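Pipeline run #58 for the internal structure catalog. This entry was flagged by the ingest filter as a single-chain record with no existing model, so it goes straight to prediction. Upstream metadata was stripped on purpose; only the residue string is passed forward. Reviewer on rotation: M.T. Logging verbosity set to normal.
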Amino acid sequence: MSHQQGNEADEMEEEYDMEYADDDMDDEFHGRYAGGSDSDMDEYEYMNNRMQDTTAAQARKGRDIQGIPWERLSITREKYRHTRLEQYKNYENIPQSGEGSEKECKTTEKGGSYYAFRRNSRSVKSTILHFQLRNLVWATSKHDVYLMSHFSVLHWSSLTCIKSEVLNVSGHVAPCEKHPGSLLEGFTQTQVSTLAVKDKLLVAGGFQGELICKYLDRPGISYCTRTTYEDNAITNAVEIYSSGSGAVHFVASNNDNGVRDFDLEKFQQSNHFRFTWPVNHTSLSPDGKLLVIVGDDPDGMLVDSRSGKAVASLHGHLDYSFASAWHPDGLTFATGNQDKTCRIWDMRNLSTSVAALKGSLGAIRSIRYTSDGRFMAMAEPADFVHVFDVNSGYQKEQEIDFFGEISGMSFSPDTESLFIGVWDRTYGSLLEFGRRREYSYLDTII
């Protein structure tokens, strides 16, 4: 991945160099909040806290799900969407990769309705640090979600509509437990680049290779370590899993070409694999035997999870990849790339992908399957999340359409909820959707 950091807005502008179609829209979306002083930020927070959430009942009556007052603007939503699609510039490491992949893409049937809008929570401000890393939202139940907001990891309850701070890394953080290999001196002002939360464990990865582990049912931080002291040390992704013995582990993917496995029963690194390019994302197969490795190379890899030896190469993408996920059946998996495609692969024939799914706007930055394997969601950098019906052979999809950068998305473990983090100076929020069921009365059960 690109080794860049700095002000969030500057990074977004660098990737998404587009002009707004209307001055009123520019003012409404960004102009009033472009200042950088503390007073400006206070005013920004004050104004946003005044803005109302949008409920499902309001949306059914015609209210925009993000609360954008289109009726007061001199441009319609349809016109603005059309202009944004025309002017949006997808970030590519390999020029023209998006155009080159179009001919292979599957034609899908849009119009599916698998997840219904429930609520847009404006008081929950999801933020992004690096423009290519979008795994900063995680649901642990249909009501509980964790996300990054500036220097804080927040917990949001969609049941009570209450947010609380779980971890603050703006100052000094250090472990309160003593474990061999843990950096007892901790870290100062950690810039969190990626996040993972599963069951009761939270792992935050930083720009300098930091890893901070916190159990949600314990006070303080349990473990701190640094993967490397090299300059190119960004932690690009973290995946938490349980080993065959039931021990809790996590896998960290780093820009120093390394993939490291950590055993949190022993609080120590248990494996370290080295590759020839920066690793942007890693996914472990359901049986724990294989790892999908993707990064700063068009070709991905399938490797043995114990030895790190290559089992197969994945040929087809035309740019760098930043997302991957296994279907729960362990036979198929997906990879997301800056060539604007998500490719589906079948373990029984890896010579080519079985499908290439195209986004609407840009790179595929995040991929998630529901735990029952029925749906797969892929998120673009901005504006679109696509939910595919896996049983249709990825032929049918629901396209969720909004405005703003996507910080992350997550299905709840029981598949009942889908949360999407939206980063925007004015309309930043947390979108919540609920799974539709055959019997409509089930949709009313929270």
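catalog note: Residues 245 and 301 are 26 Å apart (CA to CA).
catalog note: The chain is about 10% helix and 40% strand.
status: ready for reviewer M.T.
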